[in-house]
Amino acid sequence: MAEARTRNVRDLLTAKEHDHGGTGTILAHRVFAREAGGPGAEFIDLAVLPPGTSIGRHRHGADRETYIVLAGSGLMFLDGEEFRVGAGDVVVNRPHGEHGLRNDSADTDLHLLVFEEELRDHDGG
Q1: What is the pLDDT of residue 1?
Q2: pTM for the complete prediction?
């Protein structure tokens, strides 16, 4: 029997309870994780926030994490401010900044692509 050439993301997502101290259970899948010392992003995740769930407010170290909203909408918290985000919006969470995201919709999932990149100094360190 031939090996499947595609997989649907619905089959890959797993439950993640109280992500970063957030509310409820989101669904997530790590699409890519960088090998130690390798080039490129640290990771690339797909996430689905059902209505009423959230990624809790949190900080990272010396890296930049970017959220790309693929579908749905929600309330983004970024460095002391809250604002609405929706499909097509890109939010860059700066190093050491505080950020979180809540799906405040009553009936629509929020789909999100998340990637993190380590910031290195100009000497390659």
Answers
A1: 52
A2: 0.85
d(CA 3, CA 64): 37
Q: In whole angstroms, what is the distance from residue 71 CA to residue 56 CA?
A: 19
Better pLDDT: 82 or 3: 82
Domains of the chain (ranges plus CATH)? 10-118 (2.60.120.10)
Tens-place pLDDT, residues 62-87: 889 999 999 999 999 999 999 999 99
Q: How far is CA 70 from CA 32, 101, 118, 122, in A?
A: 18, 14, 23, 33
In this structure, the strands spanning 63-71 and 110-118 are: antiparallel
φ, ψ dihedrals at 9, nearest 5°: -60, -30
